[in-house]
Design goal:
A hairpin with a 4-residue loop joins β18 and β19. The chain is mostly beta strands. The relative contact order is 0.16.
């Protein structure tokens, strides 16, 4: 793994304008995978127009920069089928190449040394390590206690990674040196209340007696301050703090962000943000974390929901700003522009993309295909990519 340039800020090499020679000449574009349309929309950020649309494999989920920054991979996981694939995009031409068959690629990450593509096989509860060029299988790590494994971030020294378990309300820790699962941690907004956690565990066994509302189980508990969520959460995106000590985990049922200490692997905080907390993106100066609140707790939401973006200060772990999507929306996944001036997010249930100014929160919208998901902005600053829509360092 390349040496960390600044141990106090592992995002020091992704500041505005610090582009690698590896991306020189790349077209400035926003690549948007449209999950239900099986296409990718290509936006020119200078004109705010869709300049190209091309077909890819079934159910494209994320557009992922390669470790060496020379290819963008579209992860087509073909939900419930066996014809998953990866489609390469040449960032200098913006054109797609022939797809490579790969089983269940919901998301893609890269080993910190760049020697393996980590294919997140969500349906199989498995991580498949593959050759980063040919995608031939090298080895796998089973994660049987991590239902809905999907998003990840890596320790500052690359020795381990935390993956979120969407359907088990947890995160799992993977030892990348010994290629093994270290453990799985269930997350809860009530992490600091052992009495509440114990009650929730007991109530999990009695769901037939509880009230079900929009996939959330609630129990009237006056002694705990009113109705409380007793079902497990649904962790989504995860990002590490600039000092490499803590991980922030968005939870779309808990409507906020869990804070986990990486070394001890225990929860140390919870930050309420907004309805359906989903995507997480550090600012270019490494001081703030943008949280895309999708506006619904449902996996399939309605148009014009109560979507918003919360801004968390890394140092204080407090929300310092909240920007609603005008007219409603469903901000999901994306990334920050190379100059740091804009946050680009897909509008998952509104078939649009949002460009959000990072000083004022002003929003511009671009119509794209059906159900846009993990878009990427390209190029981005950084020396190498660890995956997802641009987890660069």
């Amino acid at each position: 793994m390349p040496a960390v340039a600044d141990p106090a800020n592992l995002y020091s090499e992704t500041v505005a304008g610090k582009l690698s020679p590896a991306v020189e000449g790349s077209l400035p574009r926003v690549y948007v995978p449209n999950r239900r349309a099986n296409t990718v929309s290509v936006i020119d950020p200078a004109t705010m127009q869709v300049v190209d649309t091309f077909r890819v494999g079934r159910n494209p989920q994320h557009v992922v920069p390669s470790w060496d920054l020379r290819t963008l991979w579209v992860a087509n996981n073909a939900e419930g089928r066996t014809d998953g694939s990866l489609t390469p995009i040449d960032p200098w031409t913006g054109k797609a190449g022939p797809a490579i068959p790969v089983d269940d690629p919901y998301n893609i990450y890269w080993s910190p040394d760049g020697r393996s593509a980590i294919i997140v096989a969500e349906e199989h509860k498995r991580l498949d390590f593959r050759d980063p060029q040919t995608m031939r299988l090298q080895y796998s790590i089973a994660t049987p206690r991590c239902g809905g494994i999907n998003h990840a971030d890596f320790a500052i020294d690359g020795s381990f990674a935390l993956f979120t378990c969407e359907f088990d309300g947890a995160v799992t820790k993977i030892d990348l040196v010994n290629r093994a699962v270290v453990g799985t941690l269930t997350l809860s907004p009530y992490f600091a209340r052992p009495d509440v956690v114990a009650q929730l565990a007991a109530l999990e066994k009695k769901k037939s007696q509880l009230i079900t509302t929009q996939q959330v189980i609630v129990q009237e508990a006056p002694e705990l301050g009113g109705a409380i969520c007793t079902s497990r959460g649904m962790p989504q995106d995860i990002r590490i703090s600039p000092d490499g000590r803590t991980f922030f985990v968005a939870d779309m049922l808990a409507d906020g962000v869990h804070v986990v200490d990486g070394a001890s692997f225990r929860q140390i905080g919870f930050i309420p943000t907004g309805i359906g907390a989903h995507g997480l993106y550090p600012s270019r100066d490494g001081r703030s974390l943008y949280v895309a609140n999708r506006g619904t707790n449902k996996m399939i939401g309605r148009r014009h929901g109560k979507g918003s973006v919360s801004v968390i200060d890394f140092a204080t772990r407090k929300v310092i700003r909240t920007w609603p999507i005008p007219g409603g929306g469903s901000p999901d996944m994306g990334n920050v522009s190379a100059d740091g001036k804009y946050l680009w997010l897909s509008g998952r249930f509104d078939d649009e993309v949002y460009r959000i100014e990072t000083t004022s929160g002003a929003v511009d919208k671009v119509k794209v295909g059906r159900e846009p998901h993990g878009l990427t902005v390209w190029p981005q600053p950084g020396r190498y990519s660890l995956g997802h829509t641009g987890n660069l360092r």
